[in-house]
Amino acid sequence: MRDFDEDISSVQLTDREIFKDFLDADETVISVIKPNKKRHYKWLLFFAIPIFWPHFIMLTVLTLGIFPFLYAKKGYDNLYYAYTNKRVIVRSGSFGVTYRGIEYKEIVTTDATTNFLDKKYNTGTIQFRAQRQSVSFSNIENPFDTLREIREYIEHNVK
User: Fold this and answer.
1) Do the domain assignments include residue 149?
2) Is residue 134 a part of any domain in this protein?
3) What is the extent of the structural domain holding 20?
4) Tens digit of each residue's pLDDT (9 = 90 or more) over 99-125
5) 2 assigned to some structural domain
6) Which of 19, 72, 124, 157 is 20 to 30 A from 96, alpha carbon to alpha carbon?
7) pTM for this predicted structure
8) Sheet containing 123-129: which strands, arranged edge to edge?
9) Is residue 144 in a domain?
10) Strand partners, 88
11) Overall domain count for the chain
């Protein structure tokens, strides 16, 4: 379990720089979470099973087939989750970068879920919901422990 009183400088500078464009001046990154790489790429298995494709689609896929793999690679490289002293943030995007965040005071409910693939890799999804939006941390390892860690941080440090 993480000691929340530890020095914030223990968070790597490179991790803080990942979110620097989106952070407020008085906001600090508490933790950065990267999704599980193997679990993130599992959806690509569908594209790797050509036995189910008719021949004419096979030609199209061979021509354009590299796109899903390139899309997934770029998407994973840009995908980071973080929680700060003010909010939870998702940084994502395949060919551009998008930031989404929800302040702690706006969060109405949280969920942690796993499916059959998640159980194999000990991964899952945490979802934070506000009135009009939600933010998800997908394919992260130990989702229940991570959610518990974030809740404890909020309870002890956010008023």
Assistant:
1) yes
2) yes
3) 8-157
4) 999 999 999 999 999 998 888 889 999
5) no
6) 124
7) 0.73
8) 109-113, 123-129, 134-141
9) yes
10) 83, 102
11) 1
